[in-house]
Amino acid sequence: MALRVENMLVLDTNILIDIEKNNLAIKDQLKKYILLGAPAITALTYAEFLYGYLSKQKDAVEQALKTLDLYRTLHTTKKSCRLIAELQYELEKKGTPLPLADIVTAAIVLENNATLITRDRDFKRIERLNAVYLE
């Protein structure tokens, strides 16, 4: 039985890499959450994923771009930039900072009222973030 996640799903970079590497365990877990339509990615995930291919042959880079084109890409806005600042401030104040890349991802997910699909449990530090943690 599939668990229903009512809002948009956003894949973290680690999940996108697992899909590309044909990690069957992750792909099987992901099936439980994808009921309608393709999940989205953030612009940061787009950049991180592509970066991993730039040192490879041209064909690999072209394949990475084709993979990225399969996903709707969510970008930062003034609202998400405000969220980035607020999240960074809150986490530093608590003494539990996160890398800026994670904060940007979380802010975009929050702005879009989406659910992040990730293996990175550090996101649990952002209590208001709706996330699913795969293993």
Descriptors:
about 140 residues; mainly alpha; two-stranded parallel ribbon; 6 helices; about 10% strand
Shape: globular
- Give the overall pLDDT as a whole number: 92
Number of domains: 1
CATH level-3 fold name: Rossmann fold
The percent range for helix content is: 40-55%
Tell how many strands the DSSP assignment holds: 5
Radius of gyration, rounded? 15 Å
The H-level CATH homologous superfamily, spelled out, is: 5'-nuclease
Low-confidence stretches: none
**Total DSSP helices:** 6
Biggest sheet: strands, sense, closure? 3 strands, parallel
| SSE ordering | EHHEHHEHHEE
CATH level 1 class label:
Alpha Beta
What class would the helix/strand composition place it in? mainly alpha
Spatial sequence of strands, sheet with the most strands: 1-4-5
CATH architecture: 3-Layer(aba) Sandwich
Distance between the termini: 18 Å
- What amount of the residues lies in strands? 5-15%
